[in-house]
Amino acid sequence: MGISLELGDALRPLPYHLRIVDHLKRSEPEVWRWASSFAVQEQHLEDMRARLLRETYRLTPESHPGVYAICGRVMAKLDITAPVTLYQAGAESMNAALVYLPGEVHVLFYGAVLEKLGEDELTALLGHELSHYRLWSLDGGDYHVASRILDHTLADPGAGASHVNTARLYGLYTEVYADRGAAFVAGQPGPSISTLVKVQTGIQTVDAAAYLAQARELEAGGQRLSEAHSHPETYLRAQAVDKWAQADDDLDDWLRGRLQGPLSMAKLDLIDQLALQGLTRKFIARFVEQEPMRSDLVMIQVKRYFPDWSDSEPMAELEAITPELADDSVRDYLGFVMLDLALADPDLRDHALLEAARIGRMLGRGEAFLEALKREGGLPKRDVDALARKLKAAA
């Protein structure tokens, strides 16, 4: 299966990259301006070059003409024009890495990777590393600026969990992008997949099709969410690049499901925080849809959530709040929002609690809501049991 896409169509930034760049530009304009204008100091460049020379063996075009020739072809396919230097670093395991310096290409090889990979696989390996350079250079360097901001945020001891998870996901999606670059320069996904497996296992011979079948067998046992911190698991990367090569229409949704999963209170990134805020707003609109629920006390509580609340808020479709969209933690959170509003007006309490319990049951969290009533709502057990009976009778 060959890849016939043109470069500009093949290696677009992923939707996650676009969303993060857009979010940072809009929500943190001063930080974005600072990071965009931050000049790399010449002293830093000299220190990095010296470190590379100190800790590696520099390969020259004269001593290693084969790998330089492959690198030149890869750079031409990726439309990269910059001086390139290759290095061999010490390590037991095989790998490669790009040291990003603006206007310069520096690629490090680790272990026996040059000896263990065939020409197609070296092409894929260099395609992967040089695709990092291409991404960081696109759109005036926006995607590198976003990465720099996230890296600086992680260095802050006060960084929130959402910032940590955003940086993690940004890195995972960047590796998926680079895998596409590997397949693009190789002309097919096979060399990219076999390179991934060789680097992971050290094995000499790999059947890419057989490994894909192995990955799909694992997938058939149920959707598996990535637990990786810097690079997605190899079985996910292999499927992702194969689906991309096949122009799978559901690829973006598939990646979302494997790298991020449903909305979860413990794993919110900056984008999902906004998504949860929007879902909360629509959910509240659905809960107070009935006129009796819109008492002054309830609406005062609603405006504590959203001070700019209007009378024409769009409402959530309860059937759309599936486990694929939001996990139990989010649906329980929505239950607590309902509980908060239901207890805001004593005159509406019985009606509001019955409606909240009914919606909780529709979300698959009916029992959890009744338990929350006992623990957090301060209702006696007999009142909760009475509510459960009313709910059963209404059903």
UniProtKB/TrEMBL annotation:
The coiled-coil segments of this chain are: none
Cofactor, free-text remark:
Binds 1 zinc ion per subunit.
User: Which Gene Ontology terms describe the biological processes this protein takes part in?
Assistant: proteolysis
Please provide the record's keywords in A-Z order.
Cell membrane, Hydrolase, Membrane, Metal-binding, Metalloprotease, Protease, Transmembrane, Transmembrane helix, Zinc
**Which GO molecular function, any one, fits this protein according to its record?**
metal ion binding
Name recorded for this polypeptide: Hydrolase
Q: Which residues form the signal peptide?
A: none
Keyword match DNA damage = no
Q: Where is the Peptidase M48 domain?
A: 73-134
Q: Tell me which family the UniProt entry assigns to this protein.
A: Belongs to the peptidase M48 family.
The record's InterPro entries line, in alphabetical order, gives: HtpX_protease, Peptidase_M48
Segments crossing the lipid bilayer:
none
Q: Which cofactor does it need?
A: Zn(2+)
